[in-house]
Amino acid sequence: MTQFIKKFHRDESGAVTVDWVVLTAAVVALAAGIVAVLVDGSAGVSAGTEAFMTDFEF
């Protein structure tokens, strides 16, 4: 049993998977933050465009 535990402790075959999971989670969080910023910005531009077009007279 101790041999199995020592061998399991030395095995690093799953370490790359953990790295990719952490990296993917960071990319998803960054993308969510960017989307949140862009939605707020586009709402302001849209409101300004609507106000301009409403007040515009031919």
Detailed description of the structure:
The chain contains two helices and no strands. By secondary structure, the protein is mostly helical. It has one domain. The longest helix is centred in the middle third of the chain and has 41 residues, at 15-55. The protein has helices spanning 2-10, 15-55. The model has no long low-confidence stretch (mean pLDDT 87).
Gross morphology is rod-shaped
Kindly state the percentage of residues in helix: over 70%
Largest sheet data? none
Q: End-to-end span in angstroms?
A: 87 Å
Give the helix/strand class: mainly alpha
> What order do the helices and strands follow?
HH
The total number of structural domains is: 1
Radius of gyration: 26 Å
Low-pLDDT residue intervals, each spanning 5 or more residues: none
* Portion in beta strands: under 5%
The count of strands amounts to 0
The total of helices stands at 2
Mean pLDDT, to the nearest integer, reads: 87
Features:
58 residues, rod-shaped, 2 helices, mainly alpha, 86% helix
What's this, in brief?
The protein is 86% helix and 0% strand. The protein has helices at residues 2-10, 15-55.
